[in-house]
Amino acid sequence: MSTSATGSSVGWRVRPSVPVAAVVFAVYCVIVISLMQTSGIGYEHFFDTAADTVRAAVLPLAAGAVWLVAFLVWARWDHVFRDARRLPLRWGYWVLPVLMVLVALLHLVGVDWGAFAPEHLLAVLTASVLVGFTEETLFRGIVLRSLRQGDRSEGTAALWTTLWFGAFHVTNLLLGEPGAVLQVVFAALGGVAFYLLRRGTGVLIAAMALHGLWDFSTFLSGVHAVDGVATDAASFLTSFVYVAALVTLVVLVVRERRRPAAEAITAPHDASTAPAPR
């Protein structure tokens, strides 16, 4: 048995910590990236056909999901999928997730649906769901849970989760994606919205849903999009998404610099044991 930061006894097999999260992250990268490489399909062609999507995305991501679930079942970590308490979130922080939903819906309106066979759509949908599940379980789940252990502030936990998620996309260079450096920035900013949904709802599935929706819309529009008002509006608003994300992240980190991250993993009846804001 181990003792949590709040003093309660929990049944972890291994204590949540950044080094452990780093090992889980490294193994996930090896599994997923190596399987994507062995598919023989270049990154820009992952979603061209149903067969390409299954080989290059669905199977590698499914293998990554198995690894993450296996680790969590073995490790017995608490508060990965649900917070013990929902931290307060000001209404202004909801603007970013809502804006991302709007852009995703506009992308979907601008998709040439007739160009996709049903099996192709199903394959892309499956890949999108798996991306949402695996990356949120890893970053807003395992990584964030690790960063909330100890005496870090919630602002620090949010910042490092965001930066780690963005840096993860450097691995796309190994898949032949020269734009991976820019993806690091855009992914990190998008990750701010996923963090806000996790925090605002207290459950990880909300972040998974937005992540999956965002990727589904971008995967489809990247293959067959129709020039029109919806596509132009989505492109226009996307710039506002990233600007809003940057501003939100700065405000969040500054305002939350004194809120103990451990508050999120402290059950309400144990509130007296949580560190007080400094």
TrEMBL record:
Q: Which InterPro entries match?
A: Rce1/LyrA-like_dom
Domain of life, source organism: Bacteria
Q: Which keywords fit this entry according to its UniProt record?
A: Hydrolase, Membrane, Protease, Transmembrane, Transmembrane helix
Q: Tell me which residues make up the CAAX prenyl protease 2/Lysostaphin resistance protein A-like domain.
A: 120-216
| GO terms of molecular function | endopeptidase activity
User: Which Pfam family is one of those matched by this entry?
Assistant: Rce1-like
Biological processes per GO annotation: CAAX-box protein maturation; proteolysis
Q: Which residues cross the membrane?
A: 18-36, 56-77, 89-109, 121-143, 155-174, 180-197, 204-221, 233-254
* Record-given protein name: CAAX amino terminal protease self-immunity
Taxonomic classification: Bacteria, Bacillati, Actinomycetota, Actinomycetes, Micrococcales
